[in-house]
Amino acid sequence: MKARLVTNRIILREFEEDDWRGVHEYAQDERVVYFLNWGPNSEADTKAFVNRALFHQQEVPRRTYDLIIALKESGEIIGHGRIQVTYPHYGQGELHCIIGRKHWGKGFATEAVGALLSFGFSELKLHRVYAMMDPANSPTARILEKLGFQREGHLRECKWVKGIWRDSLLYALLEDEWRNSNPQYAAGI
Fold first, then answer.
1. Rounded distance between C-alpha atoms, residue 37 and residue 35, angstroms
2. What is the overall mean pLDDT for the chain?
3. Is 21 left (phi over 0), alpha (psi -120 to 50) or beta?
């Protein structure tokens, strides 16, 4: 299944080979990738990531949806999001979203995550979507909580990130919680 999600201001679409330049603009930024276990990227790193995203498009059954986040009006790449079916028999998926720094604070991450959730619950028939984040990444926590995620746990020193052990917070949202609190997404995007 190919994915194309359209919201008021952005489009989430499948990766194309030439997208690596737009992705690299934010993937090489130390501040953007500070909390992540990858980056800052070299050009080779970013090209390899785009190639993995292209590979996932061909998987059957498909479990990983890496999608470019682009501005609806201009097509400018501002980030990418992922929803990955991690436990298909239990209807669980993991969510990731990254936005380039010049687009921070404008609500694009909230809009993109909302679209990914709608896709995950409506199209992928997920029951539960979870996200892991660094406890110091308070903007991400605010986005998740705004969308109805509940904090379920604090995992101590569970990730080796850029030379140090880092904690992670586990957030999750159930399908019925999403539908009840977001009726605009009940029919999908």
1. 7
2. 94
3. alpha
Structure tokens at 145: 């909580």
pLDDT digits (tens, 9 = 90+) for 16-57: 999 999 999 999 999 999 999 899 999 999 999 999 999 999
Helix, strand, or coil (residue 139) = helix
Residue 135: cis peptide before it, omega within 30 degrees of 0: no
Place of tokens 């934010």: 26
- Token code pair at residue 29: 């930024």
Residue 166, token pair as written in the block? 């880092």
Integer Cα distance of 53 and 78 in angstroms = 16
Q: Is the whole model's pTM more than 0.85, yes or no?
A: yes
Retrieve residue 164's tokens.
């140090």
Tell me, what DSSP letter sits at residue 101? G
pLDDT digits (tens, 9 = 90+) for 138-153: 999 999 999 999 999 9
Q: Please give the C-alpha separations between residue 37 and each of 66, 132, 143, 168, 176, in angstroms, as whole numbers.
A: 17, 12, 20, 12, 31
The string of DSSP codes covering 7-41 is -SSEEEEE--GGGHHHHHHHHT-TTTTTTSSS-SP
Distances (CA, A) of 50 to 27, 62, 96: 11, 16, 15
Q: Which CATH architecture has domain 4-185?
A: 3-Layer(aba) Sandwich (3.40)
